[in-house]
């Protein structure tokens, strides 16, 4: 991709992350040297996206073990990293994975074991992204051929479930990148994704770098495009998918799924297995929805005509805003779940057949 979202620095222990709050106008890395810094980078969304949050938390545990490998610090690091963001289940999954490995290690071995396991989390995500790409590519190819093999496939995506959200090709974007390699023409409708504009600031940036044709649209445009046959499929990411196939993703995803269902547009979710929460069934009732600061809604950051970065307030300064960061799309609105092992129906049986070891 030409950039790394997270990697071990040359000193072999500190961790460099791409500060995504500065994109697309500034490209800067931040060096994490403590667990606390890793926690802040997740909470303040310097890193974001379920898989990348998990990977950053894993390295946060490694930084903690380097500082103090005691049982008490292991638990403290687990708790403080877990509380950074409540919705993406990869955070809990990665922390549980690290804790399971570390608690059985002698204190003297915990630092090296933690760094090894964190590196494994990164490599596994990279592999999962590629698997999602391969299975999603088949769907894109099918649509391309049904259109006669000479017109671009128009794909709508929401937020950023791209390389920037992961340690690899992305989840929703992986099939798109592989289609480019396979010379299948694709055009992506990029939802700007208010309030933090992950689509406008992140997806547009990464697709542009990769030479993928795309058009930025407001979050309210997708339904109109679907009514006029301008969307061949939707592919979105997920932060937590329940055992029965309900999909929690960036706020606004549910509305896109409703429009897709109403217009007969296939609605796919790119789902790494690390984002499945096998402990919950009803997404609307059971998944905690993060509420973030109202300033993310009332303020916008961008590039001025003279090339400076500024933040402005749009509504009256006295206006208060509600800022729900995610919503839940019921499984009935999902055409299929693109996992690293294949495309599964958005049902309990569909997921169990794909991941029988979880049954
Ligand atoms: C591949 S997970 C991407 C997922 O994460 C985003 O949320 P956030 O930017 O707040 O971390 C969004 O829901 C994406 O679909």
From TrEMBL:
Query: What reaction does this enzyme carry out catalytically?
Result: 5-(methylsulfanyl)-alpha-D-ribose 1-phosphate = 5-(methylsulfanyl)-D-ribulose 1-phosphate; 5-deoxy-alpha-D-ribose 1-phosphate = 5-deoxy-D-ribulose 1-phosphate
Show the coiled coil region(s).
none
The residues listed in the UniProt record as binding substrate, with positions renumbered to this chain, are: 48-50, 85, 198, 249-250
The EC designation for this entry is: 5.3.1.23
Q: Which UniProt keywords apply?
A: Amino-acid biosynthesis, Isomerase, Methionine biosynthesis
Which residues does this entry assign to the site Transition state stabilizer? 159
User: What InterPro entries has UniProt attached to this entry?
Assistant: IF-2B-related, IF-M1Pi, IF_2B-like_C, Initiation_fac_2B_a/b/d, M1Pi_N, NagB/RpiA_transferase-like
Can you tell me which residues form the catalytic site? 239 (proton donor)
- Molecular function in Gene Ontology: S-methyl-5-thioribose-1-phosphate isomerase activity
Lineage: superkingdom: Bacteria
Q: Give the record's pathway.
A: Amino-acid biosynthesis; L-methionine biosynthesis via salvage pathway; L-methionine from S-methyl-5-thio-alpha-D-ribose 1-phosphate: step 1/6
Task: Tell me the Pfam families matching this sequence.
Answer: IF-2B
Which Gene Ontology terms describe the biological processes this protein takes part in? L-methionine salvage from methylthioadenosine
What SUPFAM superfamilies has UniProt attached to this entry?
Answer: NagB/RpiA/CoA transferase-like
Q: Which family does it belong to?
A: Belongs to the EIF-2B alpha/beta/delta subunits family. MtnA subfamily.
Recorded hits in HAMAP family, A to Z, give: Salvage_MtnA
What is the stated purpose of this protein? Answer: Catalyzes the interconversion of methylthioribose-1-phosphate (MTR-1-P) into methylthioribulose-1-phosphate (MTRu-1-P). Also catalyzes the interconversion of 5-deoxyribose 1-phosphate and 5-deoxyribulose 1-phosphate. Part of a bifunctional DHAP-shunt salvage pathway for SAM by-products.
Name the chain's protein: Methylthioribose-1-phosphate isomerase
Q: Which organism is this protein's natural source?
A: Hwanghaeella grinnelliae
């Amino acid at each position: 991709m030409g950039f790394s979202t997270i990697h071990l620095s040359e000193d072999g222990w500190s961790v460099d992350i791409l500060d995504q709050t500065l994109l697309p106008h500034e490209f800067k890395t931040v060096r994490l040297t403590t667990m606390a810094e890793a926690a802040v980078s997740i909470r303040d969304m310097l890193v974001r996206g379920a898989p990348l949050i998990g990977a950053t938390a894993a390295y946060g545990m490694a930084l903690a073990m380097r500082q103090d490998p005691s049982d008490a610090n292991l638990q403290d690091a687990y708790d403080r990293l877990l509380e950074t963001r409540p919705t993406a289940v990869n955070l809990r999954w990665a922390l549980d994975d690290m804790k399971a490995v570390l608690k059985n290690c002698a204190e003297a071995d915990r630092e090296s074991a933690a760094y090894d396991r964190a590196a494994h989390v990164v490599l596994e995500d990279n592999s999962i992204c590629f698997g999602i790409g391969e299975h999603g590519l088949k769907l894109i190819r099918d649509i391309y051929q049904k259109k006669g093999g000479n017109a671009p496939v128009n794909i709508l995506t929401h937020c950023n479930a791209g390389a920037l959200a992961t340690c690899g090709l992305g989840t929703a974007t992986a099939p798109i990148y592989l289609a480019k390699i396979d010379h299948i023409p694709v055009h992506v409708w990029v939802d700007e994704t208010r309030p933090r504009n992950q689509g406008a600031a992140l997806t547009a940036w990464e697709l542009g770098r990769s030479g993928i044709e795309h058009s930025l649209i407001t979050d309210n445009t997708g339904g109109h495009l679907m009514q006029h046959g301008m969307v061949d499929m939707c592919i979105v990411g997920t932060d937590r998918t329940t055992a029965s196939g309900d999909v929690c993703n960036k706020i606004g995803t549910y509305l896109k799924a409703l429009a897709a269902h109403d217009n007969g547009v296939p609605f796919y979710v790119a789902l790494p297995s690390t984002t499945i929460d096998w402990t919950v069934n009803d997404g609307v009732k059971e998944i905690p929805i993060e509420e973030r600061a109202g300033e993310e809604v009332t303020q916008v950051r961008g590039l001025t005509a003279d090339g400076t970065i500024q933040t402005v307030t749009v509504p009256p300064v006295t206006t208060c805003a509600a800022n729900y960061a995610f919503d839940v799309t019921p499984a009935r609105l999902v055409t299929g779940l693109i996992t690293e092992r294949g495309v599964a129906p958005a049902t309990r049986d569909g997921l169990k057949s794909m991941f029988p070891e979880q049954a």
